[in-house]
Amino acid sequence: MELEFVALANYLENQLKLSKEDVALSLPYWKKFSYKKGEYFNQYGNVCQHLGFIVSGIFRTYYIDDNLKENTVFIYTPNEFVTAFRSMVQRIPCIYYVQALVPSYIVSIHINDLESLYSKSKGWERVGRAIAEDAFYKLLNRMENLVFLNAEDRYKQFLEKFPELPDLIPQYHIASFLGIENPSLSRIKNRLKTVNSKVGGDSEE
């Protein structure tokens, strides 16, 4: 089995508790794709027809507002599913873009094949519910963070979840994801750096 499919199989078995038989049932349907930095998994106005599993790389979901500003809504990293969920499930045009932020590799499955698996296997039916729940909780957590956390706390939480991303993607993407302007994020980083240096200095005394 190729490495891309090994990563997928391990995730399905270990994280989603799918049986080896159910994993094997799905393997003929998954296809490999590579994306250059800036290429799109799905674009605005297109009906998303695939569910992707990220083997390596980083994707973001974003929309363009009335002022032609790009607003990043979600960020996806390896061992996560990436899709435009509502567009895929309801077969409607997507209202945002899904873009690779770095060179990325995924394996993806067409929605028709995915729904065929749901009808053939109770295990895959359960996986379908898990994927839907994950999409719902991502959206819920995103909304709650923007409402209840201030910008600094959102950044701290971002670092806990994505500690490696500040070294991999431009800061303005992170600022957009946090719902703030890039200069504001720079001030937050400088303030945290000052606080951490003081704490480090005090501990040495």
Radius of gyration: 19 Å
**Low-pLDDT runs:** none
In whole angstroms, how far apart are the ends?
56 Å
Strand order of the largest sheet: 1-8-3-6
List the helices and strands and how they pair.
Blueprint: H1 3-14, H2 20-26, E1 31-35, E2 40-42, E3 50-56, E4 59-64, E5 70-76, E6 81-82, H3 85-90, E7 97-100, E8 104-110, H4 111-120, H5 122-148, H6 151-161, H7 171-178, H8 182-204
Antiparallel strand pairs: 1-8, 2-7, 3-6, 3-8, 4-5, 4-7
Provide an overview of this structure:
The chain has 205 residues and is α+β, with helices and mostly antiparallel strands. It is 51% helix and 20% strand. The protein has eight helices and eight strands; from the N terminus they run ααββββββαββααααα. It has helices at residues 3-14, 20-26, 85-90, 111-120, 122-148, 151-161, 171-178, 182-204, and strands at residues 31-35, 40-42, 50-56, 59-64, 70-76, 81-82, 97-100, 104-110. It has a four-stranded antiparallel sheet. A four-stranded antiparallel sheet has the order 2-7-4-5. The radius of gyration is 19 Å and the shape is globular. The N and C termini lie far apart (56 Å). The mean pLDDT is 93.
Question: What keyword list fits this structure?
Answer:
205 residues; alpha+beta; four-stranded antiparallel β-sheet; 8 helices; 20% strand
